[in-house]
Design brief:
This protein is of the alpha+beta class. 47% of the residues lie in helices and 25% in strands. It is elongated and about 190 Å long. The C terminus is likely disordered.
C-alpha cells in the first residue's frame, strides 16, 4: 500500500471515531434504561415490600407494597431520604440500616416493630453505592405461631403440673401411661368396675368412673380411640385425683346440714332424717314423736341483753337438751329460738309424755348468761306418728301448731296435737289475712279505760284500747290479734290510727268537760324504730290541737334497753309527750335506764297487784316500786285493781293513779262521754266520790 493510501485510511478512521463514540454512548444508555426497566418490573412483581437506597439514603426504587408498608402515597418517595420519613416503621428501621452500611454485613432477621406492633421479616443487602431493603409483613403468621406456642405451653403445663394422668389402652386392655401424674397401670386390670368401664369404652362408649387407690379417689374419663378409617383401636383416658374435691363436697354437705351456732342438725338434715325413721317405725309397728320447742319471750331477751346473749342462751339450751334426750332421740335446731326433738321406737304414749315433761324440766333452773341469771320457760308442742300423720312435713307442722297452743296458754306448757288445733291454726291464718284490710273496712274501734287519781278520786285520764269487730268472729280482744299485727308489721298503721282517734277524743273531752284530761296510748317497739315517728306525731298533735303534755305513750320496759330507740325516745320527750313504762317489773331492764332515759311514769304490772292482799312479797315489791318512783320523781300507776281490799293496800302505798275493774271496765266512746259528763256534773263537783259511784254500780 502506498503512503498516500495509508494516510487516507487513517484520516477516514479518525473521522469515524466521534460517530463510533456517540453510537456506543447511545447503546450504553439504552442498555441502562433497559436494565432499570427490568429492575423496576422485577421489583413491582415481588409481592413483598422492597426498595433501593443510594449512598445519600435517598430512595431510587420502591415497589407498591413497600410504599404501603411505609404508609406513603404512591410515587412520593423517589428522591426522598429515608431518615426524613415520619412513619414509625421507617423511624425504627433507619438505625438498623445505618449499622448494616457501617459493618457491610448483610442483615436477615424477624423483627418486632413496637410502634406499630407489626412483625416484619427484614433483609438488607448492602452494595458499594446502594442498599437493597426487603420487607415482608408476617404479623398474622407470627400471631398464629405465638398462639400455637402458647397453646403448646399451656398443654405442657397441664400435662406436667396438673394432678392428672393421660394414658392409652389397647384392645387387649393393656394400659400405657402417656404423661402427667403417675398412675398404677395395673389397677385397671384388678378393679372389676374399671375393667367393665374399659370394655364399654372399647365398644365405642365414652365412660366416666371412679376408682380407689389406697386413701385416694381417682376419677377416670375414657373415650374410644379410632384410626383413620374409624375403627376402634383402643381407648384414651384421663385420670384425675379427686380426693380433695370429694372431701370438700362432703364437708360442704355436712355444713349445709349443720346449724352453725349450735352444731345441731338443721332443718335440711331433719328433712333427710325423718323419712327413714318413719319407714322404720312402720316396719316395726312403733310410733315416732316429734316435739316442737320454742323458748318463751326469747325476743325480749334479745332486745334487752343483745343478740350475743341470746345466742349464748341458745347454746346453753342446746347443751341441756342433748344431755337430757335418750339415745333413740335426736335434737335439731329448726331456726331462731325453735328446736325439734325426734324420738323413735315409742311403744306407748307415756314415753312421749315423759319426754315432753323432761323438756320442761330442762328449763326449770335459771341459765347463767354473761353475768345474768335468766329464768326461762319453753312452750312444747308434740305430734305422733302415725296417729296424727304419716308425712314428715305434716308432723312438723302439727307439732308447731300444738306449740302455739301451749304458748297462747301462757307458755311453760306442753300440748299434744289434736284436730281442733289445726282448725285454730287456719283461723289464725285467716285473721292474719283479714287484719290487712281491717283498717280500710273500718272494722277497728276504740274503747277507753279511765285512770283515777287516788288523791282526788276523780277520773283524770283514760287509756285508749283497740278492738276489732271482725265480720265473722265478732268483737276480738287485743290479745287475739296484736301478736299477729306485730309479726306482720300491720301494728304500725294500727298504732297511728289509734293515736289519731285517741287525740281527737281527748281534745273533745278537754274542750267540753275536763281541761287537763290526758289520753294514754300503747305503742309497739316497731314505732320506736322509725326515726320519722316523732316528726309524724308532732304533725298529728298540731293537726288535732292536742297539747303534747296531754298525751301519754306507754311502752313495755324492754324497749327502753334498746340503744336504737334512745334517739326516738329523746325526740318524743322534747315534744313534751309523757313517756310511760308499761308492765313494769316483768322485763329484763336495769333500773339505771329509769334515770338515764326520759321516763315520766311507771305502771305496775297487774301480776303484782293480783295477789297483793295475801302475798307479802307482792306487797313488798309494790312498796319498793312506789319508793323508787317517788325518789325519781315519777308518777306511779297500779293497774289491775279489781277489789276493795286491793284498792285499800294500793292507796296506803301512795300510788298516784289506779286503773282496773274495781273502778271502770274498758268502755265505748259514748259510755266514756256519759261517765265524764256525770263526773263533771255540779253535784259531783261539790264533793262526791267516784269510789262510791263505782260501788253503787
Amino acid at each position: 500500500m502506498t503512503l498516500l493510501a495509508g494516510v487516507s485510511l487513517l484520516v477516514a478512521f479518525a473521522a469515524s471515531i466521534p460517530f463510533a463514540i456517540g453510537w456506543a454512548t447511545r447503546a450504553r444508555s439504552r442498555a441502562i434504561r433497559t436494565l432499570n426497566e427490568q429492575r423496576y418490573n422485577l421489583l413491582e412483581s415481588i409481592p413483598d415490600g422492597i426498595f433501593i437506597l443510594d449512598h445519600a439514603w435517598r430512595f431510587t426504587h420502591i415497589n407498591e407494597q413497600g410504599e404501603a408498608l411505609l404508609r406513603q402515597e404512591p410515587g412520593t418517595l423517589i428522591g426522598r431520604r429515608v431518615d426524613e420519613l415520619l412513619d414509625p416503621l421507617a423511624s425504627e428501621l433507619y438505625p438498623e440500616l445505618v449499622r448494616v452500611r457501617e459493618s457491610g454485613v448483610p442483615l436477615e432477621r424477624l423483627q418486632h416493630f413496637q410502634s406499630t406492633n407489626r412483625w416484619i421479616e427484614l433483609r438488607v443487602q448492602p452494595a458499594r453505592d446502594e442498599m437493597l431493603v426487603y420487607l415482608r409483613d408476617v404479623t398474622e403468621r407470627r400471631r398464629a405461631q405465638l398462639q400455637i406456642e402458647e397453646s403448646e405451653r399451656r398443654l405442657r403445663l397441664v400435662l406436667t403440673q396438673a394432678p392428672a394422668a393421660l394414658w392409652t389402652c389397647d384392645r387387649s386392655m393393656r394400659v400405657t401411661p402417656v404423661s402427667g401424674a403417675a398412675i398404677d397401670a395395673t389397677r385397671f386390670s384388678r378393679d372389676e368396675a374399671a375393667r367393665a368401664a374399659l370394655i364399654r369404652a372399647l365398644s365405642g362408649e365414652a365412660v366416666t368412673f371412679e376408682t380407689r387407690d389406697g386413701e385416694r379417689w381417682m376419677q377416670n374419663q375414657v373415650e374410644p380411640l379410632r384410626d383413620a378409617e374409624g375403627e376402634i383401636i383402643g381407648a384414651a383416658g384421663v385420670t384425675l385425683d379427686v380426693t380433695e374435691v370429694r372431701e370438700s363436697a362432703n364437708r360442704f354437705a355436712r355444713l349445709a346440714r349443720e346449724d352453725a351456732m349450735t352444731k345441731l342438725p338443721n332443718r335440711l338434715a331433719l328433712n333427710e332424717i325423718l323419712p327413714p325413721l318413719l319407714e322404720k317405725a312402720k316396719a316395726e309397728d312403733a310410733s315416732v314423736a316429734v316435739l316442737f320447742i320454742d323458748v318463751d319471750r326469747f325476743k325480749r331477751i334479745n332486745d334487752s341483753l343483745g343478740h350475743s346473749a341470746g345466742d349464748e342462751l341458745l347454746r346453753a339450751v342446746t347443751e341441756r337438751l342433748q344431755q337430757m334426750v335418750p339415745v333413740n332421740a335426736l335434737v335439731s335446731r329448726f331456726g331462731g329460738d325453735e328446736f325439734l326433738i325426734v324420738m323413735d321406737g315409742i311403744r306407748n304414749d307415756e314415753t312421749a309424755f315423759a319426754l315432753a315433761r323432761d323438756v320442761l324440766d330442762v328449763f326449770a333452773d335459771p341459765f347463767e348468761v354473761f353475768g345474768h341469771s335468766l329464768s326461762v320457760s319453753a312452750s312444747v308442742g308434740a305430734a305422733l306418728y302415725p296417729r296424727n300423720g304419716e308425712d314428715p312435713e305434716q308432723l312438723i307442722s302439727f307439732a308447731d301448731e300444738a306449740m302455739y297452743q301451749a304458748k297462747e296458754s301462757g307458755g311453760g306448757d306442753v300440748k299434744f296435737y289434736d284436730r281442733l288445733m289445726h282448725v285454730h291454726a287456719l283461723e289464725r291464718l285467716s285473721l292474719e289475712q283479714d287484719l290487712r284490710y281491717a283498717l280500710v273496712r273500718g272494722e277497728l274501734t276504740l274503747e277507753f279505760q279511765p285512770l283515777v287519781d287516788l288523791r282526788s278520786q276523780r277520773i283524770v285520764a283514760a287509756e285508749a284500747l283497740v278492738r276489732w269487730k271482725h265480720p265473722l268472729f265478732g268483737e276480738l280482744s287485743p290479745q287475739s290479734f296484736i301478736g299477729i299485727a306485730e309479726e306482720t308489721r300491720a301494728i304500725v298503721d294500727i298504732d297511728r290510727w289509734v293515736l289519731r282517734e285517741a287525740c281527737k277524743a281527748a281534745v273533745r273531752v278537754r274542750e267540753a268537760l275536763i281541761p287537763d284530761f290526758r289520753i294514754s296510748v300503747n305503742l309497739s317497739p316497731l314505732d320506736l324504730r322509725d326515726t320519722t315517728f316523732p316528726e309524724w306525731l308532732s304533725g298529728l298533735l298540731q293537726e288535732t290541737r292536742l297539747p303534747p303534755e296531754a298525751l301519754d305513750v306507754e311502752l313495755t320496759e324492754n324497749v327502753f334497753v334498746q340503744d336504737s330507740t334512745a334517739g326516738v325516745l329523746a325526740a318524743l320527750s322534747s315534744l313534751g309527750v309523757k313517756i310511760c313504762v308499761d308492765d313494769f317489773g316483768i322485763g329484763y331492764s336495769a333500773l339505771g335506764y329509769l334515770k338515764r332515759l326520759p321516763v315520766d311514769q311507771i305502771k305496775i304490772d297487774k301480776m303484782f297487784v293480783r295477789d297483793i292482799v295475801r302475798d307479802q312479797h307482792d306487797q313488798g315489791i309494790v312498796k319498793a316500786m312506789a319508793t323508787l318512783a317517788k325518789t325519781l320523781g315519777l308518777r306511779l300507776v297500779a293497774e289491775g285493781v279489781e277489789t276493795e281490799a286491793q284498792f285499800d293496800i294500793i292507796r296506803d302505798l301512795e300510788c298516784n293513779y289506779v286503773q282496773g275493774y274495781y273502778f271502770f271496765r274498758p268502755m265505748a266512746w259514748p259510755v266514756l262521754w256519759d261517765t265524764l259528763e256525770y263526773e263533771c256534773a255540779p253535784h259531783r263537783r261539790a264533793g262526791g266520790r267516784i269510789v262510791s259511784l263505782t260501788k253503787s254500780r
